[in-house]
Amino acid sequence: MSGLGLGVTLPVSASGRGPSGVVGTACLVEQAELDAVSVPDVLVGDGTPALEAVAVLAAAAAATERVPLDFGVLALSARSTV
């Protein structure tokens, strides 16, 4: 069994710092040698703006080299099929 890991959820809400906050947080997580970053799929019906979860992880992937990325929850039913 491996040890306990520590991860961080990236900011995706309007109260976050937007795309620069996502990239900055992902870089800080990697520098701190934490174990993962995750992103929840924020579906708010009241019009509250939130960044798209797939785009957030794509930005984090482009800015980092070793930190694992994952979705906390991804609502597939909210996305169109290919």
TrEMBL record:
Entry-linked Gene3D superfamilies: Luciferase-like domain
Cross-referenced InterPro entries: Luciferase-like_sf (IPR036661)
Superkingdom classification of source: Bacteria
Protein name per UniProt: LLM class flavin-dependent oxidoreductase
